[in-house]
Amino acid sequence: MHLNRALSILVAVIVACLSLRALAQPDPIAITPAADIQTHFQFWEDTSGHALIDQVAVLPEEHWSLVGNGSATFGITPSAYWLRFALRNQTSFNLNLIAELGYSQLDDVVFYLYADGARIKELKTGDGRPFYPRDVDHPSMLLRLSLAPEETQTVFVRVATAGSMIVPLRVWREQAFFESAAYELKLHFFYYGCIFVIILINLAVYLSLREKLYLYYALALFGYLLFFASIKGFSFQHLYPQAPLLHAKALLVSIPGLALFSLLFCREFLNTRVNSPRLDKVLIGMMVFELLYLCSAPFLDYHLGIQLASFSALLFFSLLLVAGPVVWMAGERSGAFFTLAWSPLTIGVLATAGRALGVFPESFFTEHAMQIGSGLEAFILTLALADRLYREREDKISAQAASLKEAQSRNIAQHLLTEALTHDPVTGLPNRNRFEWMVEQQLQQAPERRYMVGLARISRLDEINRTLGLARSEWIMKRVAEQMVELAAALPFVHSIRDDQGREERVYHLSGDCFCLLVDVDKAGSDFSALNIALRRLAEPIWLDHLAIELHPRFGAASYPEHGRSAAELIRNAHVGMEIAPRGGNETGVYSPKYDIYNESRLTLMADLRNALQQNQMMLYYQPKQDLESGQIVGVEALIRWHHAERGWVNPADFIPLAEETGVITQLTRWVIGQATSDLADLHNERQRLSVAINISARDLESSELKDALDLALQDNGLQAHALTLEITETAAMRDPARSLKALNVLAEQGYQISIDDFGSGYSSLSYLKQLPASELKLDRSLIEDICISESADVIVSTAIQMARSLGYRVVVEGIEDAETAERLKAKGCDLLQGFWLCKPKPIHELKQWLKDYETDGRAARSLGL
Ligand code: C2E
Ligand code: CA
Ligand code: CA
């Protein structure tokens, strides 16, 4: 085939030589003074690519084909193309002309200039060679020539290229060419300048915010810049004129590069991971393709590279064209911006392709369509990024405001809770918790001094309540409180402190009808006359609606150290003193052990308890804990029961405090641990996940026996530590905080669950409780009792639950006696529930039966709509 063609050229050449035809003259392009230069040329396809100028110059006329408009596209072809045109000066002066092949990507271009049948110039150029030397310092393929008046010159051009064979020929008057080139240059530098500034802005934003999005965008724009600069030949001319190979690779690399970073940017900007996972997968697939292409681009054959580039560009553009609307449809603002930005670029690309294919006419717009499109895109996306920055800042500010508000309301809640736990709701006076805490503090600080706890009880309060109603009796209590505070203020020996808000505390409201104070006996000396006067004043009736209300107060007192060494004991004994004071005499009953009917029996009771423990006469009852979420029973609490041969059932509340005081408690706890673990092992036969809670007292924490007893019991019964919960009351944990904390930490490390019992019944410092390694908090029954009838109780419980949960505790409510309270607490977010409403404490065999019944039918009835 090739041989045939070569032969035919040879024949043609021989025929030409034989016929002695001179250099063929095409119809010349006439250059007249007035009219524009109308370019046309003839071409001949040299399929062998080997024809030489001397052969081509004498080719017979019929081999040449005419291109009337001066511009032709031959696609990708291995052939060499020969162009031929003649120029004739029809003016009366010398003309300096420039012939331009306006496509900078042509690899190999050789101009041959003939005048009067003789070759006067030969110029080799094309981007397959080093940029220089050129006739004109410009990326297009240019030939300069000058024509004398009436002179005709003929130009042959040989073009060979691996890319598209696009040959837009144009002949210029020299001045017109330079003017146009200067104008073009201005446009380009405006475009490159704008894009460059946008790149810098995005890089700066990236550096300050460290958001990848802006980096991707800057890199994508850089890809565009490189692409345009390469395709227009600018980068070749200005950056690496001596490296044609690099020039070819730069173009190949810029296409997948800009695509890859555009895709990365698109993914971040549209947040497709969230907004459209399917689109996200497609984008990732496309990215993988572009990445592979990018890595292989430097090694690809130019031809294959260009084909891949067209394919990838087509895919990439269509994909990003639908990406915006997809996300827009999902209701995202960024989708709208993206669609808006990507459309002009797509139009630009279509217009450029249309121009190259000859579908659209040559015009300023079609020629610069891609630059205009990409410029608009960059502008709109920059607006979108600015919008995004603005919104993010707004969001951050409002989030900050919200968290500030939350912190404030948490503080208020914490304050309210502390206030509620330490003050009486009616009189606003500090309550029993506060009094006990204050006395304990005082006894610790100055144990060598002598004190007296004084108590006053409005003994007719019940009666007043019944006859005058709650509102009036509350009014009376407030009056009494005010009067007491006033009287106490006049007595310098009444101990006073200030709370953390600076309020002075002298008189405490112990319970409904009972007030108390602490007297510093050393300060008072032996003179109690002022106190007695004050007490008499207190006994005077109070006037309400012209009615003198008799209060009948009764007074009791107990002294430290004689009558007790702890706040609780002193209060209790002041009560005993009050009971034995003669009625109606306004006299203060001072405690005396000989009147204390409880006292004698205490010792015998403890002896009996020791015996009962030794002889295994005690019993354990179990009360189930229900998980409010699942309705399942997740654990049981072990509660000790004692049936005394003579006294009958003895209440734990009566013997546990005694056992603690006398130290019998360690023995009791040891027994409970042994019994509870063996019962638990038994329960595990059917319900492996059940845990048992054991009540631990402060005394237990102080001895090292506890851990050993626990470990041993686990071992004996084959149990894991986490199956045991140790319930410790907040007051017990507060007795010797440092020591308790240490002991509890050791136990928690071992895997035992720690639970804070009776939360809300004492004055505990939350900041201390927070340090304990507890995972559970049990709200005391006294807190919960009234939530269905008192709004303030309800608020306090809500606050306590919220706070406990925010500190990470599992919240247990105990002492639930009715469904209404249970419903309310579930709604407030409690985790576990315990109480008579669910089940009273039961001996082990009854518990087993109950569990069975519960699982079959009881669960529906007792599990709050689950
Ligand atoms: P606690 O640890 O707060 O135990 C809960 C108490 O509330 C139990 O009283 C239980 O029977 C009772 N209870 C449960 N549900 C309800 C309800 O719905 N309404 C009412 N009114 N009460 C309910 P119990 O058994 O009389 O125990 C009293 C306290 O004695 C316990 O309070 C605990 O501090 C102590 N205690 C009981 N057993 C032991 C023990 O084995 N060791 C130690 N150290 N203390 C124990
Ligand atoms: Ca308990
Ligand atoms: Ca409790």
UniProtKB/TrEMBL annotation:
GO molecular function: cyclic-guanylate-specific phosphodiesterase activity
Record-linked PROSITE patterns: EAL (PS50883), GGDEF (PS50887), PROKAR_LIPOPROTEIN (PS51257)
Location of the GGDEF domain: 449-593
Signal peptide: 1-24
Domain EAL, chain residue ranges per copy: 602-855
Domain of life where this protein originates: Bacteria
InterPro entries for the chain: 7TMR_DISM_rcpt_extracell_dom1 (IPR011623), 7TMR_DISM_rcpt_extracell_dom2 (IPR011622), Cyclic-di-GMP_PDE-like (IPR050706), EAL_dom (IPR001633), EAL_sf (IPR035919), GGDEF_dom (IPR000160), Nucleotide_cyclase (IPR029787), Rev_trsase/Diguanyl_cyclase (IPR043128)
Keywords: Membrane, Signal, Transmembrane, Transmembrane helix
Annotated TM spans: 189-207, 214-231, 251-270, 282-300, 306-328, 335-357
Record protein name field: EAL domain-containing protein
Organism taxonomic ancestry: Bacteria, Pseudomonadati, Pseudomonadota, Gammaproteobacteria, Pseudomonadales
